[in-house]
Design a protein that fits this description.
Helices cover about 70% and strands about 5% of the residues. By secondary structure, the chain is mainly α.
Length: about 475
Amino acid sequence: SSSSASSPSASAGSTAAAAAADKSTEEIIAEVKSRLFRSQVPWLLVFDNVEHPDLSKRFLPRGAGTKGHVLLTARHAPPASADRTLLLGCFPPSESVQLLARIAPRHVSSPRDAAAARSLVETLGNLPLALGTAAAYMRRCDVPCAEYLERYAASEGRRSSSSSSSSSALPARYGESNEHFHSVASSLALSVNEIEKENPTACRVLRLLSFLGPDLVTKAVIRNLLCERRRVDAVAERRRRDVDRRRSVARATAAVALGIGASGALRLVRRNHGGQAGVVAATALTAAALLFVSQDSFLFDGHSNNQPDTTAPSTPNSFSSFEYEQADLVWDILKSFSLISVKDGKGTIHRLMSQAMRYSQSDEEARGNVTICIDAMRSMWTFKPERPDTWKESQSILEHVKSVAAHSLEYHDLSPEYILRAGQLSKEAGVFSAMSLNAFVEAQASLEMSLKLLDIGAAKRKRNAAFQKAKAET
């Protein structure tokens, strides 16, 4: 029967899975390389989007003769040791125009728009990512190519006049060429401006997503970001009202003090019949009252809305209808502008696009967004070593956790509370990688990052028990 025939196969699969679970990552890599070396049939091993060329050396089978081939794709220049390298440039102008016509056919059909398309592809350096963003804008906003080119020029003028950073600083910060980064950032800026007018919430979410991993973006992630954003706004509003209330009380008290001071000064002058001593004493008393009046801003402006909220949750968020509705709306907007590509309910944002979004934020805005991402990941992180049922959900946000922890290192002026939270998240990611994935190299990297964060936090809060405990656990 069919059931009896499938039984040995199922048993063999279970045995293989059990054997693999007992092996470390290095043992599995070594076995795969050994099998490829012994294979007598042609094979092709592909490493797609390699971020760190040195890492691929661990996985490359050597000495396998002519049977096997290895293909690596990367955005960065290959190492000098690469056997054969094919550098892929951007599209030729004719293909770039065809790409625009394929995505937005109605918007490049007239002779005027066709000429504008040829100018646009040259302006964008024939970079497919930038061209795709431009074409999506034309289609989404129903703008012909000639008008898009005009809007692009106007946007570039505003960006150039408002930017204080030299473009020569971009490669050091992002590891990309000036030309490619500039093309993506410029086309993205036009789309972001349009989204800001249509739905500011979508813009805020896009800025937040730039600090998370590029893959496995889901509506659940967006809902948690929205929930944390709303909580931060509510805390800031409560603090603002509290500061205003205390400032009003201080001003009323100061006004009374000023009145008493002026009255006392007048009596002193009269008692001394306008003598010099009386005038000096009156002046001193009035100056003291005025100084008291001026202290209200000094006393209360220190209550910054950017101070960390110690009530931030470390348990799963509960969502209102606002988060569900806005997450759906943001999802559709980002898709329609081709800022996120979606497959099977999971989205991907191009790394270069995320870098451009981070670059567009001020340090203060970026710090605030990093803290929101930290709390959003804390609320989503459910990993419990003793409960395997929590492992799958935690794996879905593992790269987001690692990304936000890495970005936390960039902002040493984060509050110690948030540095501690980021350090704890990185530690949890390390434990998860080791226990659930047998990925010990990745686990070590996460644990080392956790220690770096905790060292920074401990330096800010000397002899703090929370940091000492966290370091001991790591």
